[in-house]
User: Fold this.
Amino acid sequence: MPIPLAQSPDAAEALLRRADLLAALPRAAAPPVRPTGLMPREAAEDDTLMAWAAAGDRAAFGVLVARHGERALRIALRVLGNAEEAEEVAQEAFLRAWQAAASFDPARARFTTWLHRITLNLAIDRSRRRGKAVNADEEALARLADPAPGPEAAAVAAEDRAALADALARLPARQRAAIALAYEEGLSGAEAAALLDVSERALEGLLRRARLMLRRLMTS
Assistant:
């Protein structure tokens, strides 16, 4: 059951500006000296940027934030349903990635898999600590959806979004995460399972239970 919540780049950029994901990173007393002849940071692969970040290159890590901050925020928002908490989680995820840059091993996982797993775990843990269903930030979720073509369609879409946001908010955290990764972020089964640290078969079980619960919630 696809969840038709396409992302809006403008909305994501607004979230990024407000979150200021680099703000929590400690500033070095003096920036590291980069050898001459190195490629521009913006042209470097993620693994190379992480190696530079491990040496204290904050600007290199800033390129990673610019590349991948949008998806980290989206993942956190889909799980938490609250823009302010999603910003805090994404910022914490990047802070932890910066602090652990020296231990990052590209032979074991891609940077995006590693980062998004950190983000997802933080979001799920925060949701569980609440001990109750999330309060869906429908306005924030709506900003990540494509605008409807006309006034009538807009009204229907808004009502559908509100019902969907409410139903998603009532799912257990891991089921919300599975829905977000597989349907809203469009990841493959293998990619989504890797982020959740489960087998693809277990992911299918999570998605099946989530779909059944969503159907019950939206028809009740």
The CA atoms of residues 96 and 118 lie 8 Å apart. Residues 1-12, 138-150, 152-157 have pLDDT under 50 and may be disordered. The chain is about 65% helix and 0% strand.
